[in-house]
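User: Hi! I'm working on a homework problem where we have to compare a predicted structure to a textbook description. Could you give me the structure for the chain below?
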Amino acid sequence: MIGAGAFLGIDIVTLDVLQALLPLVFFFLLFQVLYLKLPRGYVLNLFKGIGMAFVGMVLFLQGVHVAFLPTGRDIGAFLGGSHLALLIPFGFFLGFLATFAEPAVRVLCREIGKSSGGYIRESLMLYTLSLGVAFFVALGMAKVVYGIPFQYIAIPGYLLAMILLWLSDKDFIAIAFDSGGVATGPMAVTVLMSMAVGAAGTIEGRNPVADGFGMIAMIALAPIIAVMLLGIVFRMKKGAVE
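Assistant: Happy to help. Predicted structure tokens:
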């Protein structure tokens, strides 16, 4: 039986989702009346889909608040307390899983596969993004464990991304920067960020604000570098064929 605590604050979540969806519905209705003139059956199906999306978003975000965020904090506190040696490898493992399960990442990979006509395989992109994020999450956990200042990772990382812009195949550049956006979805933000904050709050000498945050910026950077490195491999293969 689901406890009452599972629905605590669901009214606020529902209001937030309504505020997000209502403007989209309004603009669709405006275009429908003035320009689109779509059939009634199509509009009815569309509103059924919006209704399902509304229910799904409310349930998902409520689950995030009552499950993912506290779970991430508790895991981080546990590893940061008595199992510090496991924090970095566990961060790699969880970073891979969170990205692999991220719905937005899968949608992007599917669209890349379709748009490229199979030239860039969906599975290849999915594993590239997952491994890239996994590496940077592990690096983020190392930052927490050893107290590495964030700028020592962020500045070289973005400089590397700028250099890769000139070396990577041009087909991969825009994909790389879009990938950085989709990788920072709800799975990564809720689980990985909260885990880093929980660990930083437990390790002696660490500040949850100064050391725990920065993980999302690193997750956003990871796919950019990983995809452009993949673009370099494709560029080398093109050169070998030519």
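For your comparison, note the following. The mean pLDDT is 92. The chain has one domain: 8-241. Good luck with the assignment!
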